[in-house]
Amino acid sequence: MSLASYIGCNVEIPLTDPDSNDVIVFGPCFSDESKLEIVQEFQVQTSYTYEVSTSWGIELVEWQKKEKKEAKKKLLALCSIMEGYLNDGDYFELFSCWVGDEDKERMGKLKLNHFHIDEICISERTLIRIEK
Question: How many helices (DSSP H) and strands (DSSP E) are in the chain?
């Protein structure tokens, strides 16, 4: 099984070249168009939905020390990229889950704008709204 991360936003984001070595890649990796439609219907409240590939989903949980350190870098990189697309007051939503769990009930919801990366915990099936 694979942990996939999805974002929802109200601006169109260009897909990344599939052969890119970027830390954050916008486009299919673990899922397909049907999974994006499910995430759009059940999880996010935005116009556009994308899979965000980082070779593994973004999950910040205490018991995964090495993975948590990598996920922090990925989340900060994603926020930095999205800052270039969003206007003040805009937001994007991040949702990570095991492939096949896209329509399952959320385990949590978190709203962030200015945050300290070391103080947040993001488990699977948590919807995070990050505001600019």
Answer: 2, 6
